[in-house]
Amino acid sequence: VYMATNNQNIISYNPYTGSKNWEVHLKGNSKGVPVICSKRLYAITDNGYLYCIDIFTGTIAREMNIGKPSILSMAVNNSQLIVAADNLYEYDTTGTLIWTYNAGQNCSSSPQVANGHVYVGVNDMIHAVDASSGTGIWTSPSAGGVTILSSPRVSNGLVYYGGQDKKIYAINESNGSLKWQYATGDKITSSPMVYGGMCIIGSADYAVYCIDTTSPSSPPNGELRWKLPTLDRVNSSPTVHAASNTVLIGDNRA
Questions:
Q1: Does 86 have pLDDT greater than 90?
Q2: In what order do the strands lie in the sheet with 9-13?
Q3: Taking the model in full, what pTM does it have?
């Protein structure tokens, strides 16, 4: 288990015992989730340092000042690193820039790579970018004119994400057009999980939502499968413990 802290550290823990394997100090804070590529852990800091760390020993293999501060998670594309910052960038694992996509504004969500494209939130729209060349493919309609912080997830021809306009969105992977939207009671900054025919996501309205992704419903309505009330706002992103078929997600309680 790898965890980035607000003390400019990344720590590795044994997942079975909770004991610490190693701890490494960075020249800045890594706000996003570190990614693994070719048995190396990669992290980017909020002051523009890109780190390559041995996953077994915690040894820093490379420390590269790429000058692109980011508080978002990276994505991996065929052993290349996708960095969302003031623009969208692809670097190789030595820190060499491969391409730049001029997003027009700062990227606002972490990117996802799927089917040869990179999907990323830029202000109030999702941008689809060719992963091999950095060429823009399409931009989605506006999500209510407010910034998208939810990171997109792609499954079966649809791109799912949440909006601060209080809606869950599913748009077509091919062209960004709206498939359906589902209104919640408050802002959504949680990133969705798509699993077993379900899109699961948290909302600041004190609830977790599960929307059916397989029903033939037409725009503008996705179909609610279930809604779980919580005791506080839900800004974190869900995951599934497959062995028990259980959704794990946190709320804002201290």
A1: yes
A2: 2-4, 9-13, 20-25
A3: 0.93
